[in-house]
């Protein structure tokens, strides 16, 4: 699960790459671009945390995940790349919501209290991102 959180389709690496893309795409709006930049840094921190956990569990913390019985590397093709503001913000919001659902499910399945506490703390960050994207959608796309 930690490897999937790092390099799966719905992963921290997917969020980082998408938010860097969004930051570059909308650089004419310094405020919005800056928000994506700051959120991408938070997602990089999450990526690092999951990598540390995976390594401590004896896994190689590459950007990969299990698919069936084999390892599959992360791909930029996992992301959608909308170019208009409404779809761009909606895409980011939906990704954050899916991430919260994924991590909540992991909290129910994982028995290690320390990992669960890390997940719960990361969920708090993702919920802040949801709030930010909801607010931006209201502000930019009324």
TrEMBL record:
This protein's name: CotJC family protein
Matches recorded under InterPro entries: Ferritin-like, Ferritin-like_SF, Rr_diiron-bd_dom
Segments crossing the lipid bilayer: none
All copies of domain Rubrerythrin diiron-binding, residue ranges: 11-136
GO molecular function: ferric iron binding
Pfam families xref list: Rubrerythrin (PF02915)
């Amino acid at each position: 699960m930690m490897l999937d959180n790092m390099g799966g389709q719905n992963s921290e690496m997917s969020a980082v790459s998408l938010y860097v893309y969004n930051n570059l795409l909308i650089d004419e709006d310094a405020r919005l671009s800056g928000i994506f930049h700051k959120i991408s840094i938070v997602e990089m921190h999450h990526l690092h945390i999951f990598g540390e956990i995976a390594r401590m569990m004896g896994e190689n913390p590459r950007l990969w995940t299990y698919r069936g019985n084999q390892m599959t590397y992360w791909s930029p093709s996992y992301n959608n790349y909308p170019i208009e503001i409404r779809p761009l913000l909606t895409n980011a919001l939906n990704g954050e919501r899916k991430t919260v659902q994924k991590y909540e499910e992991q909290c129910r399945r994982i028995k290690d209290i320390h990992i669960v506490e890390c997940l719960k703390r990361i969920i708090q960050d993702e919920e802040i991102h949801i709030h930010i994207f909801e607010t931006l959608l209201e502000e930019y796309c009324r």
